[in-house]
């Protein structure tokens, strides 16, 4: 008895150390990520893990003491129910009681989960398999949902989970089997250490490999929801970037750093009054009700997103998306607007411009400002003259007011949606309608009542947000911190619309989308910067953007007019007011009709000429990159610059990469169709005005700059489908493969020929005729011979003599052809087709005969 | 065919003429005989225990067969013999008891008092008895077939584990199969005649020769490892409170050799181990529960068999 007790003790200890502890760590990892995402959990992952650990340990202890699972679990459930009832009846105010109940329920369910898992891992045979596969799926799901993970990071986290799964399966099985014998502590310690070691190695390698990205990730993770905005986040360098999804959060930070400065060459028709266009970065077209967030979708119909990476584009290089331009050209009232963006704090790989943009050219920042701004680019957008996101406020401005009325009148003439592609309409009008979202539809219907045109319906939504109560106070208000608690059942959007009526851009834009889509109007969310004109006469057309101008608004589709911006957010005065006085705008880059980027081949300091092998030649916004050719540049009058400093010609060496520009206005009216034509037009040697020498380091930076390898579900699906089908195929063919292997082995090895012949025979019999159980070799052969006259006993006897007699090795003899002939003759027509593929039998046999 | 083989074959045939459908039991008894051990038969009354023992004794020519019915009032001297005063010699003479024979049938051994049981078992182990100051050697071939009745356990003295260990094999006869039983019922008179007229087919020397041949049978290292694994497993099993002794292992190996010879082989195989392990070990173990009593040893044997089957020939 003493021995039994000590065995039980060691089993319990081993179970706690080797199974429960890793499981708790794994659960911590999962809960940590789940907490990031679901606000209902309120970031209490540590407490939740502790509760889980308590559940799993207590249940393991009780199981080790031979308590029955069913009775203890029923008692536990009764106890939890009791406490739940008591809490809900405590008179601590309705809200508090509700809140405490929710928290209690979370902890109770975590605790009972731990309880069940502890029991299963201790007693149930297949639990480790089921549990590890559950963890596996849950892990993948959580990682995908929590987003932010890039492809390779995901792969690493994925590796960790699969490692844990394999470990659990291995250890649980070993522990369970060891119940008959002594537990080998050394073995288990070694196993645990190797598990931890592998995890550490994985962690270390991923940390060192993705240092920058992980730091960014970590920053993001530390304050994931507070964020600085619903749509923006900061990367490792503190630069602002836009997120792939817009989540509706509790609060929004105030951020007053200067992000960028833009010159938008857009004025109200016939006036010199600037028409400030919003700068768009992304579109969110899909709503995910499980996470209550609007997401980007690469597959959105008639995708008009132009997403170049300015950080990767060589200086003065242009990039044009002709497809976007072509699509936009089918709509009325559009013209090209030129924009210059001077980037200070935006992530270098981000591109913002008024929609619909189709062209980018990186430009140098002129000397006095090059320290102030990191980079600059010129963009072209094909903008509707009806476009102005300004919508609700600034009604005092008569020009704007007239403009608004004018555009509403024009938009009333918009064609009907009926002529549009049905799938397009369906995509952009899809909203959840079940559950709590059901109450939005009646509201939308009541607003749309008696409104015939699309724009009138939109105005009805505007007026809904613009309504005033009996005291002439606005019903809907702007608030950076609307303070909606992370209620589990109350959708934040629904809560905003019907209860709190306080929110910021994400709330207004989200609610507008909900209402408009319920009315059948195709719309989507645009994320970017709101533009506020603070110029007051001086520096007209220049706009300054601060962190708190990161914004989300609505784009609505009008047939014949295309996508137009509408901002339904109630006045956010803070973002509109300048956080600091506008600085001096940087001088605009001169129009360069000819620019060349390439490698220096030779330098002639006496003639002041440089021979360049061109990588890219730009002639009046047309880029020639396909061919390379040699240009001779005359740098007599040119200033040679490297970053902020000026260089001498002798400082340039062969092999350097330079960009050279001509501002010769005569050339700007010319056009060329081929590189040869360009060469003729610019003359030889070509006179250039500016030469920019690129730093080697800068080039390297460009090359290694982060690829935007976002994880795509379809890629994952393909990988999963292909690997699964390969696995299934392999499994189905396993019986035949195993037979072939044994046959091959029997021929190959002299010494063990008889052994593999016997295995082949047994495997074949096991597969088709008689499952191998606990028989000895001879018994099995005899049983098979009783069923079919196969004469296998002879082989078995010979084999046994070979194995157990110390007499000399019997003469090698191949029994297999005989056996196979016998087998097919005797079993003709008796074997069902599926037995060829019954890999489970093969696996069972191979497992017994390792 | 060697003389050993002939002896075995003729003994088998002779026994099978009388005991129908019991090849396995016959083989077990013969195994114990050739291995130089003793056998304990346990089964309900009327299953042929006595007939088997009697026929075996009669088959061995010049063999003496004695039968002792064990009862609670049996005394050691009833079994071993006693000193009787001889008037002529004016001295106490030793009168040999029934134990001085070649084949002894100890019927219902568990009914006798522990005193008698231990006297018998000691004689079985030592091949000699000591009365007073004289030691008497038993016959060179001394084979005991003890029987035990599992029903009517009232007033019995179960054999202690240490004494059960002396029996190489404990076998249970079991009822005959339907076919065999019908044959027995059909030709009972013939069988009865056969029993009475059992001819001696071998003599004691032949048996001794077989016993010597047993020593020559080759045992492969794998099987020794298998036996030692079984012993080890019985000691560590949760359901077994008393594991198998080393003597049990020796007995098992010896029995395997003998059985291999019966199967006309001069080497042992895994089948010998599988066939004998239960008969040799089951009665030497003490179990914690009824469930363990039924399954524990089978489990151990099966896992050892799996180990043996997995081994590649060297």
The fraction of residues in strands of chain B falls at: 15-25%
Using only CA atoms, what is the Rg of chain B?
20 Å
Distance between the termini of chain B: 29 Å
The averaged pLDDT of chain B comes out at: 88
Subunit arrangement of the protein: heterodimer
Residues in helix, % of chain A? 40-55%
- How many DSSP H or I helices of chain B? 13
Largest sheet of chain B: 5 strands, parallel
Give the overall silhouette of chain B: globular
The number of helical segments of chain A is: 24
What is the helix content of chain B? 40-55%
Pair with the most extensive interface?
A-B, 27 and 25 residues
Distance between the termini of chain A: 35 Å
Order of helices and strands of chain B: HHEHEEHEEEHEEEHEHHEHHEHHEH
Summarize the structure in words.
The complex is a heterodimer of chains A (850) and B (314). With 850 residues, chain A is α+β, with helices and mostly antiparallel strands. Helices cover 45% and strands 16% of the residues of chain A. Chain A contains 24 helices and 26 strands. In chain A, the strands form 6 sheets. In chain A, strands 18, 19, 20, 21, 22, 23, 24, 25 and 26 form a 9-stranded mixed sheet that branches. In chain A, strands 8-10-11-9-4-15 form a 6-stranded antiparallel sheet. In chain A, strands 5-14-16-17 form a 4-stranded antiparallel sheet. In chain A, strand 22 and strand 23 (645-647) form a beta hairpin. In chain A, helix 20 crosses helix 22 (792-804). Chain A starts with a helix and ends with a helix. The model of chain A is unreliable at 216-228, 484-490 and 697-712 (pLDDT under 50). Chain B has 314 residues and is of the alpha/beta class. Chain B contains 13 helices and 13 strands. Chain B has helices at residues 3-18, 23-35, 49-59, 76-80, 114-126, 161-164, 178-186, 188-196, 204-216, 221-236, 246-262, 270-281, 290-310; strands at residues 39-42, 60-61, 65-69, 81-86, 91-96, 103-107, 128-131, 134-137, 143-148, 169-171, 202-203, 240-242, 286-287. In chain B, the strands form 5 sheets. Chain B has a 5-stranded parallel sheet. A two-stranded parallel ribbon of chain B has the order 2-11. In chain B, strand 7 (128-131) and strand 8 (134-137) form a beta hairpin. The two termini of chain B are 29 Å apart. The mean pLDDT of chain B is 88. The interface between A and B is medium-sized, with 27 and 25 residues.
């Amino acid at each position: 008895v003493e021995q039994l007790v000590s065995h039980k003790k060691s089993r319990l200890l081993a179970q706690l150390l080797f199974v429960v502890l890793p499981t708790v760590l794994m659960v911590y990892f999962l809960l940590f990520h789940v907490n990031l995402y679901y606000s209902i959990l309120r970031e209490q992952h540590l407490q939740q893990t502790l509760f889980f650990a308590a559940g799993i340990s207590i249940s393991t202890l009780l199981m080790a003491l031979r308590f029955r699972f069913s009775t203890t679990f029923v008692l536990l459930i009764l106890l939890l129910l009791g406490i739940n009832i008591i809490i809900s009846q405590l008179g601590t105010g309705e809200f508090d009681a509700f809140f405490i109940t929710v928290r209690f329920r979370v902890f109770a369910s975590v605790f009972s989960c731990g309880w069940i898992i502890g029991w299963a891992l201790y007693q149930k045979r297949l639990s480790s398999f089921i549990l590890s596969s559950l963890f596996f799926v849950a892990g993948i799901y959580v990682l995908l949902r929590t987003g932010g993970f890039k492809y390779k990071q995901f792969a690493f986290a994925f590796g960790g989970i699969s490692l844990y799964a394999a470990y659990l399966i291995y250890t649980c099985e070993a522990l369970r089997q060891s119940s008959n014998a002594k537990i080998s502590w050394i073995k288990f310690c070694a196993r645990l250490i190797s598990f931890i070691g592998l995890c550490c190695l994985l962690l270390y390698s991923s940390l060192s490999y993705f240092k920058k990205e992980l730091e960014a990730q970590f920053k993001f993770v530390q304050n994931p929801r507070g964020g600085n905005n619903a749509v923006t986040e900061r990367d490792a360098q503190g630069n602002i970037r836009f997120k792939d999804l817009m989540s509706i959060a509790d609060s929004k930070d105030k951020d007053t750093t200067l992000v960028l400065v833009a010159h938008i060459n857009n004025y109200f028709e016939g006036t010199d009054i600037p028409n400030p266009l919003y700068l768009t970065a992304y579109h969110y077209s899909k709503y995910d009700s499980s996470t209550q967030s609007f997401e980007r979708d690469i597959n959105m119909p008639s995708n008009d997103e132009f997403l170049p990476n300015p950080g990767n584009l060589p200086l003065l290089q242009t990039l044009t998306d002709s497809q976007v331009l072509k699509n936009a050209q089918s709509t009325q009232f559009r013209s090209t607007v030129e924009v210059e963006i001077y980037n200070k704090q935006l992530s270098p790989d981000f591109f913002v411009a008024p929609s619909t943009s189709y062209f980018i050219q990186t430009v140098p920042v002129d000397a006095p400002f090059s320290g102030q701004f990191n980079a600059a680019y010129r963009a072209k957008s094909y903008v509707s003259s009806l476009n102005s996101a300004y919508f609700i406020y600034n009604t005092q401005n008569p020009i704007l007011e007239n403009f608004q009325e004018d555009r509403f009148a024009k938009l009333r003439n918009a064609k009907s949606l009926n002529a549009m592609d049905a799938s397009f309409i369906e995509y952009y009008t899809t909203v959840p309608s079940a559950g709590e979202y059901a109450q939005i539809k009646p509201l939308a219907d009541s607003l749309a009542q008696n409104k015939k045109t699309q724009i009138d319906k939109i105005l009805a939504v505007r007026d809904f947000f613009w309504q005033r109560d009996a005291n002439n106070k606005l019903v809907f208000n702007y608030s950076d911190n609307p303070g909606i608690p992370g209620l589990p059942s109350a959708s934040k959007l629904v809560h905003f619309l019907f209860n709190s009526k306080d929110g910021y851009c994400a709330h207004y834009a989200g609610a507008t989308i909900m209402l408009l889509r319920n009315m059948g109007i195709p719309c989507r969310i645009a994320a970017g910067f709101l533009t506020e004109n603070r110029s007051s006469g001086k520096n007209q057309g220049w706009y300054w953007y601060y962190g708190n101008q990161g914004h989300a608004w609505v784009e609505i589709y009008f047939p014949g007019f295309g996508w137009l911006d509408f901002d339904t957010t109630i006045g956010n005065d803070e973002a509109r007011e300048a956080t600091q006085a506008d600085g001096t705008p940087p001088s605009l880059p001169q129009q360069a009709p000819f620019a060349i980027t390439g490698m220096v081949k030779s330098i002639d300091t006496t003639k002041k000429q440089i021979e360049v092998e061109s990588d890219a030649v730009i002639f009046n916004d047309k880029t020639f990159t396909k061919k390379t050719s040699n240009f001779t540049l005359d740098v007599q009058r040119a200033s040679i610059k490297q970053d902020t400093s000026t260089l001498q010609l002798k400082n340039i060496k062969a092999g350097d990469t330079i960009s050279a520009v001509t501002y010769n206005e005569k050339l700007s009216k010319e056009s060329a169709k081929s590189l040869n034509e360009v060469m003729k037009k610019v003359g030889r040697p070509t006179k250039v005005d500016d030469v920019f020498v690129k730093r080697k380091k800068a080039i390297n930076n460009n090359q290694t700059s982060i690829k935007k390898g976002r994880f795509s579900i379809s890629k994952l699906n393909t990988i999963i489908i292909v690997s699964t089908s390969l696995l299934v195929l392999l499994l189905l063919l396993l019986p035949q493969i195993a037979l072939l292997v044994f046959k091959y082995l029997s021929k190959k090895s002299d010494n063990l020929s008889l052994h593999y012949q016997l295995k082949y025979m047994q495997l074949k019999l096991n597969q088709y005729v008689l499952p191998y159980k606990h028989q000895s070799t001879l018994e099995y052969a005899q049983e098979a011979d009783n069923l079919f006259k196969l004469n296998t006993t002879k082989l078995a006897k010979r084999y046994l003599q070979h194995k157990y007699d110390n007499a000399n090795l019997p003469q090698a003899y191949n029994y297999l052809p005989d056996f196979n002939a016998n087998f097919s003759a005797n079993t003709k027509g008796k074997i069902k087709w599926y037995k060829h593929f019954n890999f489970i039998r093969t696996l069972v046999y191979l497992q017994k005969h390792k | 065919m060697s003389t050993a083989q002939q002896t075995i074959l003729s003994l088998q045939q002779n026994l099978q003429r009388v005991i129908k459908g019991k090849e396995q039991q016959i083989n077990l008894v013969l195994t114990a005989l050739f291995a130089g051990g003793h056998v304990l038969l346990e089964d309900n009354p009327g299953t042929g225990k006595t007939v088997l023992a009697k026929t075996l004794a009669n088959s061995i020519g010049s063999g003496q067969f004695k039968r002792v019915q064990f009862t609670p009032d049996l005394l050691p001297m009833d079994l071993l013999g006693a000193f009787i005063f001889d008037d002529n010699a004016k001295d106490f003479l030793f009168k040999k008891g029934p134990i001085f024979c070649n084949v002894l049938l100890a019927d219902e051994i568990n009914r006798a008092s522990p005193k008698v049981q231990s006297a018998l078992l000691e004689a079985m182990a030592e091949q000699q008895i000591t009365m007073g100051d004289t030691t008497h050697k038993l016959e060179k071939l001394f084979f005991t077939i003890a029987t035990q009745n599992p029903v009517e356990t009232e007033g019995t003295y179960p054999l202690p584990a240490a004494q059960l260990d002396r029996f190489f094999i404990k076998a249970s006869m079991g009822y005959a199969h339907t076919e065999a039983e019908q044959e027995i019922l059909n030709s009972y008179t013939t069988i009865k005649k056969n029993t009475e007229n059992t001819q001696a087919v071998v003599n004691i020397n032949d048996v001794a020769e077989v016993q010597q041949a047993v020593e020559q049978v080759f045992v492969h290292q794998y099987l020794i490892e298998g036996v030692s694994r079984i012993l080890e497993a019985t000691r560590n099993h949760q359901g077994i409170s008393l594991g198998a002794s080393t003597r049990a292992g020796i007995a098992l190996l010896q029995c395997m050799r003998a059985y291999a010879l019966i199967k006309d082989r001069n080497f042992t195989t895994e089948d010998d181990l599988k066939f004998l392990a239960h008969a040799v070990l089951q009665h030497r173990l003490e179990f914690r529960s009824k469930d363990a009593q039924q399954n524990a040893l089978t489990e151990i044997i099966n896992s050892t068999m799996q180990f043996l089957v997995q081994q590649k020939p060297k």
